[in-house]
Structures are given as structure tokens and as C-alpha cells.
Write a structure and sequence with these properties.
dioxygenase, four-stranded antiparallel beta sheet, Phytyl_CoA_dOase-like, Phytanoyl-CoA dioxygenase family protein, about 20% strand
Length: about 280
């Protein structure tokens, strides 16, 4: 489907799994049609406007990810549990080919986190003054819940907008999912890590060759991962990654994100979210 490194078509799942296992991320391209993506865009935009207007239940609007919560009164960077209110999103995130890829990566019992914690989330990142989310610093996903048994997991990002330096992009350290990264005992937000946390998480017990930066610093070996409209980017819960801020003040970067998990689904009401990454 593509000559780009790390990009695979719907009939290339074996190659996708091979690349993912080695590098910690891969892109699935060509699974969703333009009609599919347009429907996701239309329904997510409508849900976003409904959050701003106060027409949806409060559980669909979030401030937990934002750098300035007051901005949520004027703009909604996030719509949580969006698969519950968007048929197009629900169809995309449960597509049989995507589910097959997740089963290959996580095992046959892999489950979609659709109704727990934040569910599947629509995200609208932009650098304007009204926006409460523009970028995020270095982290790995498991660090947000180091006490939970849900891991390992694979996050998916369905890109409504293609990415570039103009509107922001993902930065990753290939192979870092193979390191046993410490829980975020050191973090810029001063968040306390519970005593029940695992001390480290990774696909192996090999420690990282250097400390994970606390903010947005350049990391040895990092690469930029760009996406086209309709791409589905997969990345491992132990992969070091961050998101770069847009350079064009009039741009936006919209996507739908969530994850499939290979560990134990938590009991009702059992949640953990350590907001350790810099914003």
C-alpha cells in the first residue's frame, strides 16, 4: 500500500505486526474510505459543538487534559466517550481489520476501552488563544496508570487531519517500548505516584539507556511520525512519545484516539490517571 517505512495496508497485517514489535508503532493506511472519515469528522464536530453548548452530558466534556481549564468554557478540545454518541466512530474503532490487528498484537482476548476512564476520545489540538491543548511532553501511556493490571495496550489514532510541522505531529523514540521505563516518580506536574505502582514497565526488563526527559527536549534517536487523513496510527503503551506544537497559528490537528488492552479489565469504578506529562 505504501513505500513509506512503517506504513501498511489492510492486507499487510503480518508486516505491520513485525514492524510494530520491533519499533513500537506502525501506521495502518487505506482501511477507512474518504466517506468513512468524512462521517467521523461530521459527527465529532457536531458532538464538539454540543459539548460547548452544554447539550451533552457532562461526562462527554473534559478538562483533565488541559493546561488551562478556564479555556474549556469557550472551546472544547476534547469529547470523551465519543464512540457512544457517534456511529461513525464506533464503526471505525471496531472495524474487523483493526480488531484483527489488535488481536495479533495483544492476544485474542484484547478488549476496547470504550466505556472506562475516558473511553474513545475526539481531540482537537490547535495553537490559538482559545485552545487549552497544543502539545504534550514525553511520556509513555502506561505511566498514567502504573497500578492497574490493564497493560499491555496498543493506542490507536484515527487522523481526521493529516499532520505536519504546520499543525503538529507525533515524536517517538523507536524501540523504547522494549525498555523498562520507571513509573513517573519525577514529573513536571508534581503528581504523586501511588505506593501500589509498579516501579517500571516495558516489553523487557532492560532499563533505558538514559532518563526520559521531563518536558519537550530532543531525545537521541527520536523520529517524527507524520500521518495522512484517514491513517490509523498504532503505538505501544510503553513507547516514549510526545506531540509537537503547531507552527501555524491558524492550523488544527484533529483525531480520534483510544486503545485496545491485553490485560485485565478493571472493576467498575476502579480508575487511575496520573497526569505526569508536560503540557
Amino acid at each position: 500500500m505504501s513505500s513509506e517505512p512503517g506504513v501498511f495496508g489492510p492486507h499487510e497485517l503480518g508486516a505491520l505486526v513485525w514492524f510494530y514489535d520491533m519499533h513500537g508503532y506502525a501506521t495502518l493506511r487505506g482501511l477507512l474510505t474518504e466517506s468513512d472519515v468524512a462521517a467521523v469528522e461530521r459527527e465529532c464536530t457536531a458532538a464538539q459543538q454540543a459539548v460547548i453548548a452544554g447539550e451533552l452530558d457532562i461526562r462527554h466534556g473534559s478538562t483533565v487534559f488541559l493546561d488551562e481549564e478556564a479555556k474549556a468554557q469557550r472551546f472544547a478540545n476534547y469529547v470523551e466517550y465519543v464512540s457512544e454518541i457517534s456511529p461513525a466512530v464506533r464503526a471505525a474503532v471496531t472495524h474487523p481489520v483493526l480488531a484483527d490487528a489488535m488481536a495479533r498484537l495483544l492476544g485474542e482476548r484484547a478488549w476496547l476501552r470504550a466505556h472506562e476512564q475516558f473511553g474513545v476520545v475526539y481531540q482537537d489540538a490547535r495553537p490559538g488563544r482559545e485552545s487549552g491543548y497544543t502539545r504534550i511532553g514525553w511520556h509513555s501511556d502506561w505511566q498514567a496508570g502504573p497500578s492497574l493490571d490493564v497493560w499491555p495496550s496498543t493506542a490507536f489514532t484515527i487522523h481526521i487531519d493529516g499532520t505536519s510541522p504546520a499543525n503538529g505531529f507525533l515524536r517517538v523514540v523507536p524501540g523504547s517500548h522494549l525498555w523498562a521505563t520507571p513509573a513517573p516518580y519525577r514529573n513536571v506536574n508534581g503528581v504523586e505516584v501511588p505506593a501500589t505502582a509498579r516501579p517500571a514497565g516495558g516489553r523487557t526488563d532492560r532499563p533505558p539507556p538514559f532518563d526520559m526527559p521531563l518536558r519537550f527536549e530532543k531525545v537521541p534517536g527520536e523520529v517524527a511520525v507524520y500521518a495522512e487523513r484517514g491513517d490509523i496510527l498504532l503505538h505501544d503503551c510503553y513507547l516514549w512519545h510526545s506531540a509537537a506544537r503547531a507552527t501555524d497559528d491558524d492550523s488544527r490537528r484533529r483525531h480520534v484516539r483510544g486503545g485496545y488492552f491485553g490485560g485485565t479489565k478493571p472493576a467498575a469504578g476502579v480508575e487511575e490517571f496520573i497526569k505526569n506529562a508536560a503540557r
